[in-house]
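Troubleshooting log. The previous structure file for this entry was overwritten by mistake, so regenerating from the original sequence record. Sequence copied from the archived sheet and checked twice against the printout by T.R.
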Amino acid sequence: MIMNSKSGIEKFITNPSRTQLIIYIAAMIVISRAAFFLLYVWHLDGSTFQGFLESINIWDSNYYKMIVTDGYPESATAQSSWAFFPLYPLTVRLVTKLTGMNIDLAGFLISNICCFVSCIYSYLYIMETRKNAEEALFYLTLMVMGVCGFYESIMYTEAMYLMFLSMCFYYMEKDSYLVMGVCGALMTATRNTGVFFVFAILFYWIHKIQAKSFKEFVIRTFSNSRLVLGTMMVPLGMFLFMYHLWNLTGDPLAFVHIQKAFMQDTKPGMFNVFARAVDLYGGQLWFWGYVIGLLLILVMLCTLKKNSERVWGIINWIIPFQRGMGCQQRYLHIDIVTELCFSDWCMKLKRRWRIAILVLMALAELVLMIMWLDRNGFLV
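Regenerated output below.
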């Protein structure tokens, strides 16, 4: 009986069926969200699910709620909602209109559905590129149960963005460039950073065709009309939002210019952001541990074998520095390749060590959940 149980677990780890995979992903999401709720009950003495939703949908969630109810303002406020892209709040608005459920609940359900779909496509992508079901399951567990997984349950764009990004990577790998383009357009309507995916496409294509000259590269590239059209479709979501802002405010780049309101007294740019962080936290030991961790992540990203993943990872390591170091962890969490790179490294270890790492990451996630409930500003 024990031998049959062990062989069943081994079969699941190395080759799960479609049904087993779906059940495993759904179970992880439910367990993770239940743990979040129980922490709310224990730490804040909460009792209702609505109270829980209101406690986790904070910070930027308030801007999405304003967009859902009132749309985008015509004139700037202290921190205008122009900085937040429209697809997620529009989806929440649609669900609230169709079902009558409140905004917090609609946002929670949408985020978790997107999280589920992103897990499916991430699994497919890893199987396409690594052909290793055990690594795929490790990655999914890390994404849902590990550090920063809670972002995919709150009323932030993380889960929706991650869903479209995983689709883009998968369909790019399958050479389904038009589908990739549609997913890319939806991704850039969710978050502006999605527009940089065109660089991932570029380096994927460079490696794929192995052109011997620039002339050959140009000819083979533009002779592939599906690739060209699919790539051109990626920024479409952002361009449509820019057009809306142009009609609304006269400034198509209002989402960029309003970022100054979020910077407080910090000038934009990596070194200015880092200098401010040192002024605020330089006297605390944990901060330097955080900095060392970020540098180690950068080194780790440089070891990725696939050009598209390496370039995409480095871009997403740099982007958050333009705003503030506190948001770095959630940008890296949802770029797919950072945690995938970590999974690549962990697969070199024995299974018992990988299990220990997952347990450690899950415990760290519980700490982050408590910090979020305490409205710790560094997690914004």
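The CA atoms of residues 89 and 106 lie 10 Å apart. Archived copy saved in two places this time.
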